[in-house]
DNA sequence: GCATACAGACCAACTAGTCGGTTTGTAATA
DNA sequence: TATTACAAACCGACTAGTTGGTCTGTATGC
């Protein structure tokens, strides 16, 4: 029970292959061949190929959900909470890029019983963001005319879309991307008063008053 | 050559099925059964299942690329151009939601020769957006400190992500969504001076000066 | 009579999953 | 320490089912 060598190797190999060729573009035979294992070894560790897919999904969504909850608890104002959540969300791409790609590309192929569990967590994640946005509007930090749903889905969309273009060795560091996203998002959410607040505008790339 | 009855029926059926079950979750047999055709009919109209997938991709990207170019030509200022492009982009979801879902989900499974053609158009689309953003910065309508790439990819991401949540019969009309997106995007891009410009701020949900 | 449009039985290839067997680790016993 | 006992980890040939694609045949229009 202490050794998980093979299981981890299978996951890692599968992740790399799934990211490149898609879930259906990779056979179990190929996975085991590529990581020097066998069919038997695979099915000793996983009930099915579907379970492997579920495992990959679950590792990622569980991690990112925890991070969001931590960020929510750690900070006390809507703006700080939102920025922290987004930063953590963006950061995840540094470690879990293949997971996220599989998560966003192959979720449709999850077996119903697995899909349900994943969707439940995905929904909770969304609700955290909606919650922060609502709090921000109530606190007059975010504009009142915003649609919480639309703003939330926009944020989730722009960050998630990173899986299509983010390269860990690209010209921008993950922290730069996170900062740029926060800048864009806050500019679109903040009220004029909030932008003049020193404490809040520290998350912007350039202060409003600078010009 | 005038009658395309069957071909269109096949595409329509395939689209519905692909959207729901994914490309690999739908067999050719199922497609032809569901639209009252036959294997022979299918392979008379398409060289292969892959070609059908390519066709779906091409119809959508060709359409949306044209719309963006039209919008670019029709308007003369960066802000107007951007808003028109985004509006047209969002509107497409009304007609082509299944196409877009397939486009965003199954592109990885395109055969290399097909993938190349699609990517070329996808790239051109991206470049139009980047171009407008650059023009906006030069014209001092958009903030100078923005990263054109990041801002562009954010926009593309937030709109494309609609395929995950947009329901044609949802509570918001497509025009409302387009307006809300434009509002969010402009707030994140515009300079303070530009926001004070009557002509430009007409694209915002609420004028800056209102409060 | 000839091409186009379509039908449907058929095939070859592929793939997830199985199953009997082997190796490896480990703990109890002598 | 050596030996036995047992279970978990792992192997790989095999299978049963599925799927994209073919091929022969038919009907319809020009």
TrEMBL record, chains A, B:
Enumerate the spans annotated as HTH tetR-type domain. Answer: 4-64
Q: Which GO terms describe its molecular function?
A: DNA-binding transcription factor activity; transcription cis-regulatory region binding
Q: Which Gene3D superfamilies match?
A: Homeodomain-like, Tetracycline Repressor, domain 2
Q: Which UniProt keywords apply?
A: DNA-binding, Repressor, Transcription, Transcription regulation
Taken from the record, one Pfam family name reads TetR_C_24
Annotated coiled-coil positions are: none
* Residue ranges the UniProt entry marks as DNA-binding: 27-46
User: Transmembrane residues, as ranges?
Assistant: none
PANTHER family for this protein: HTH-TYPE TRANSCRIPTIONAL REGULATOR RUTR, HTH-TYPE TRANSCRIPTIONAL REPRESSOR KSTR2
Protein name, entry field: TetR family transcriptional regulator
């Amino acid at each position: 029970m202490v050794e998980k060598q093979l299981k981890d190797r299978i996951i890692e190999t599968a992740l790399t292959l799934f990211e490149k060729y898609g879930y259906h573009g990779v056979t179990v035979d190929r996975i085991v061949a590529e990581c020097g294992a066998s069919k038997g070894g695979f099915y000793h560790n996983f009930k099915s190929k579907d379970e492997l897919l579920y495992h990959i999904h679950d590792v990622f969504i569980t991690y990112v959900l925890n991070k969001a909850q931590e960020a929510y608890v750690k900070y006390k104002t809507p703006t700080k909470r939102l920025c922290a959540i987004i930063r953590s969300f963006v950061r995840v791409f540094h470690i879990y890029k293949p997971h996220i790609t599989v998560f966003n590309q192959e979720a449709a192929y999850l077996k119903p019983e697995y899909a349900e569990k994943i969707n439940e967590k995905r929904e909770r994640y969304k609700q955290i963001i909606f919650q922060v946005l609502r709090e921000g509007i109530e606190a007059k930090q975010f504009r009142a005319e915003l649609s919480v749903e639309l703003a939330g889905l926009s944020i989730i969309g722009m960050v998630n879309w990173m899986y299509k273009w983010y390269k860990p060795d690209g010209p921008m560091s993950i922290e730069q991307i996170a900062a740029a996203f926060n800048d864009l998002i806050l500019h679109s959410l903040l009220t004029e008063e909030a932008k003049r607040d020193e404490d809040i505008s520290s998350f912007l790339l350039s202060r409003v008053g600078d010009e």
